[in-house]
Specification:
36% helix; Epimerase_deHydtase; single chain; two-stranded parallel ribbon; binds uridine-5'-diphosphate-glucuronic acid; seven-stranded parallel beta sheet; transmembrane helix; 13 strands; alpha/beta; 412 residues; 12 helices; disordered N terminus
Length: 412
Amino acid sequence: MKHLYKQTGLNHLKRREGDADDQIPTHTRTPRTPKTLPRPLNYLLREQRLLFVFVGFLLATTFFLVQPALLRLGPVGPNPLLLLNHNSHNHRHLLPVPAGVRVPPRRVVVTGGAGFVGSHLVDKLLSRGDDVIVIDNFFTGRKENLVHHFGNPRFELIRHDVVEPILLESKERNDIHYFMSLRSKLNHGYKTNVMGTLNMLGLAKRIGARFLLTSTSEVYGDPLEHPQKETYWGNVNPIGVRSCYDEGKRTAETLTMDYHRGADVEVRIARIFNTYGPRMCIDDGRVVSNFVAQAIRKQPLTVYGDGKQTRSFQYVADLVDGLMALMESEHVGPFNLGNPGEFTMLELAEVVKDTIDPSATIEFKENTADDPHMRKPDITKAKELLHWEPKISLREGLPLMVSDFQKRVLEE
Ligand SMILES: O=C(O)[C@H]1O[C@H](OP(=O)(O)OP(=O)(O)OC[C@H]2O[C@@H](n3ccc(=O)[nH]c3=O)[C@H](O)[C@@H]2O)[C@H](O)[C@@H](O)[C@@H]1O
């Protein structure tokens, strides 16, 4: 009968060496390890167990040494840096991009992207290589603001009112990365701010996009604190003529935070202070656009009330930089985005006169109800956490919008 031998590697070696023990079955052999060793050690030394442990150790060491180097070599799959995973609370997408690694272009939906601020934001996003889908109802937005992108395969324009839900299908979850919702003044903005924000938050939740709400300094109402910090809860008249807009934005902030806390949507909130620049609506009644257009048309500058109320005016490019910094940061906000340079309306009229027509006259008119007496952002938080602050003063920025206004006034 054939004997079954339990052949160890050691026996095998010995067999080749022609050892005399060769023919002795293992189970009948005297163990080679001394009997005096403790049992666990004895166990380890038998049957090449030590060798296997050593080889395993070597393999593990090699893997952990080589793996980081492999990761640095380049993308693994389509989304190497998880820039897309904006609906989670991990912050891996904030990792710095290693040199030489191509970041996949992000897809950004900008609602209100044909408007004044929206179109400047779209310019910036496209210029850094993102894909942009603009949704606009063209009530205040204009195709002219985006016409230079028509024909660009990375740009899409959809005529739609965000008050109605919209189904944006994406190939996969997280296919759309950012959602930027720009503001509207229409119908005092209430419907857009509440229904629009609700619809867009639902969409952001469904497709796993990060959502940016562009709120406003108007949430502070007629402030009793000056300058205004983000911690100030505001002083808004709930039944006043401005309250649809003010309360609409306040509700939009509430909804945004609720979706963040309750549905895990990753959100950012910016409180935008008075902003000016090329492509502003000529006729929506804002003070900078009114004064500039009036000076160009050789009409008197209409100052409401005594003209001593104050505002702080930021140039649109500064705002866009702030919005981008906020989107890329890991901070939810809210953040004040504004220029702390504060002016009375009479002082603003002087700057406009100096810039466009020193012979322009001033005409006083009755002010609207509930007009905030003063407004100036405290931007300490944005400076510290976003490393952002505006660079362009009013005197530098105003001339940059004049030629655009001159052209449009002439076209009229
Ligand atoms: O442009 C903006 O960013 C802001 O515009 C408005 O807020 P408001 O501060 O009232 O801005 P304007 O309508 O431009 O008015 C600013 C001041 O100028 C005065 N004004 C306006 C127009 C004018 O012809 N003359 C004039 O003196 C107004 O009475 C007010 O005191 C919006 O309600 C804000 O949400 C938005 O952030």
